[in-house]
């Protein structure tokens, strides 16, 4: 039996990258999937392809920085597929990579809206439906960047720290409803990775060499199964966890200081 047979999953940012990989793996495991994506072109293309392969998938135009839009995505999942069992909060809108002192209030606001607030709104919207269903699984996306204080990601690091706190709070408080909440910190060859690889010759090889497993992750083959595990009954006794899915990158970590920034400026 497939891991996610008869499960309904809403995945934000599933029009590409890691989110798409997770959606594709979920469908292979029997789930019906809502592709909650900002880009109509990308989201509809993924949903149509999954349906063409015999899967159950529906695109829902979703702006995760907008509460009403997220609530609509959850309502669409319930209206179209009858319920919501799994919520995967993956999407976010990146801001320019600049030093902390150059990050603006607007950048932080954008990042918080598309990560912390987005997850908060989605979780609150899904909550009553999961309760009616007798439980559910929430998987939030955390990041190794927070743990190493990655340069040029000050707003992102701040937001992802909050995501971990939100995940643990939900695990502690919603366990009484049989709702589990976990976080993963993935690294894989998504859209940003391919952009960096195209702009920087040798980037993929250097990135692979940093990981004990010696390779870079595939969104569907490497990240998808871990999210599916957390969404399935295989993890029925797992909640409040944060799991690195990065080929071991969290063990050595990495130096993110830009080469042009001096060690001391005083």
UniProtKB/TrEMBL annotation:
PROSITE patterns: ADH_SHORT. Transmembrane segments: none annotated. GO terms for molecular function: oxidoreductase activity, acting on the CH-OH group of donors, NAD or NADP as acceptor. InterPro entries: NAD(P)-bd_dom_sf, Sc_DH/Rdtase_CS, SDR_fam. Signal peptide: none annotated. Pfam families: adh_short_C2 (PF13561). Belongs to the short-chain dehydrogenases/reductases (SDR) family. PANTHER family: SHORT-CHAIN DEHYDROGENASES/REDUCTASES FAMILY MEMBER (PTHR42760). This is Short-chain dehydrogenase/reductase SDR. It comes from Marinobacter adhaerens (strain DSM 23420 / HP15).
